[in-house]
Amino acid sequence: MADESYEEGQNCGTFLSCMIDVLEKWTGLEILEGSLNYLDYLLWVFTPFIVVFILPLFIVLFLYLSILFLHVYKRKKELKEAYSINFWDGARKTLATLWDGHATIWHGYEVHGLEKIPDEGPVLIVYYHGAIPVDYYYFLAKVIIQKGRPCHSVADHFLFKLPGFKLLLEVFSVMHGPQEECVKALKNGHLLAISPGGVREALFSDETYGIFWSNRKGFAQVAIDAQVPIIPMFTRNIREGFRIFGGFGKYFIFVN
């Protein structure tokens, strides 16, 4: 009896083969073997592509989960008592903690030079725009957690046209300019971050990290008009992290 079971196990092979044998005996359809083998082959072929796109899709999902959280939080008025300074401070800190945990677990993300960001007062932060600016999201989380203050951000116009993003952009003080609004934010004592290269730099730069600023010098004029210092920021490995699968490694951000 044991020998028969062993022989059946040998003939069965993989789990998929066993399922095919069972279905064939139950239904009497021998064509199932060919069809399922073909599906098994397609799964084997497309598995690398599925793995490659897992992280970007997860980031998009995480953004929409953040938006969903903000909508739920907006309706939980009883939480307002826990945050006496500003109604949205609790939401920002909670989301910052989630994003900081994601940064640590997924990338081993670290920030060097965060002490150069003042605890109060205006500063203009200029940073390199990676293929996906997830490093900047992580930086925002670090600033909110360790400095206890938000950082205003300048983003491309298309971001404001994405469905469902309005509340997220408002809570995290994201603006699309113009220069007058940037100067106003700095004069009001806020941190402000700008990536002069923007989407063009994200799409066309490569592993050499060439900057694509073209004639964009408005950020310098903003700093001059607001009379604030400029702090450059760069994330090591951000380009490799989203260029090849084997490039996922530790991210180190340098604030100079």
UniProtKB/TrEMBL annotation:
GO CC list = membrane
Q: Which UniProt keywords apply?
A: Membrane, Transmembrane, Transmembrane helix
Ranges where the Phospholipid/glycerol acyltransferase domain occurs: 110-233
A molecular function (GO) held by this record is:
acyltransferase activity
Q: A Pfam family matched by this chain, by name?
A: Acyltransferase
Q: CDD domains attached here?
A: LPLAT_MGAT-like (cd07987)
Q: Which SUPFAM superfamilies match?
A: Glycerol-3-phosphate (1)-acyltransferase
Q: Which residues cross the membrane?
A: 41-70
Record carries keyword Membrane: yes
- What InterPro entries does the record tag this protein with? Plipid/glycerol_acylTrfase
Query: What is the protein name for this chain?
Result: Transmembrane protein 68
